[in-house]
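Quick one:
INPUT:
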C-alpha cells in the first residue's frame, strides 16, 4: 500500500536554527521551501536518500502546528508515506475502517496531493499520505 517513507515532519519554532542543524551539521540539502497559508505553516524539505525531512514552522499560535507546539513542544509531528494513487489508497483505508482526518486528498507542499490519517487509527502517530505530482522526480524513486 505504501511505497516508502516520503518524509518525517518536525514542528519547530525557529526554522533557521533547525535548518542550520539539518543542513550544515547533518548535511541534508534543502530542496524546497514553501509557505502554505491554508495549513498555517512555512515548510522546508531537506533531502536524505530517497526520503526527506520536513521542517514546519507555524505562521502563528492559532494554527495546527502552533497549537501542537504549545501543547507538546517542538519535535516529531508526523510521518508521511508515499503512495502511487492517493484516491485508491483512501478508499481502501475507508473500507478497512481506518479513521481519516481528510476524507479527500488536498493540495500539499510542492503541488503534491496529501491526506492525513487520524493518530488514534495509527497507534498514536499522525500519519500523512503523499502522492507526488505527475512528472515529479520523486515518482521515479528519487533519482533525478
Ligand atoms: Co508532511
Amino acid at each position: 500500500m505504501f511505497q516508502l517513507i516520503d518524509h518525517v515532519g518536525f514542528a519547530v519554532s525557529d526554522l533557521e536554527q533547525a535548518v542550520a542543524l539539518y543542513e550544515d551539521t547533518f548535511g541534508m540539502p534543502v530542496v524546497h521551501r514553501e509557505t502554505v497559508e491554508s495549513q498555517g505553516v512555512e515548510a522546508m524539505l531537506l533531502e536524505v536518500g530517497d526520503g526527506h525531512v520536513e521542517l514546519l514552522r507555524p505562521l502563528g499560535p492559532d494554527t495546527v502546528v502552533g497549537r501542537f507546539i504549545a501543547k507538546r513542544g517542538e519535535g516529531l509531528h508526523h510521518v508521511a508515506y508515499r503512495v502511487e494513487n492517493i484516491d485508491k489508497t483512501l478508499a481502501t483505508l475507508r473500507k478497512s475502517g481506518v479513521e481519516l482526518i481528510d476524507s479527500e486528498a488536498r493540495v500539499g507542499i510542492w503541488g503534491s496531493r496529501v491526506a492525513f490519517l487520524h493518530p488514534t487509527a495509527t497507534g498514536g502517530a499522525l500519519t500523512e499520505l503523499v502522492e507526488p505530482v505527475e512528472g515529479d522526480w520523486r515518482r521515479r524513486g528519487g533519482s533525478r
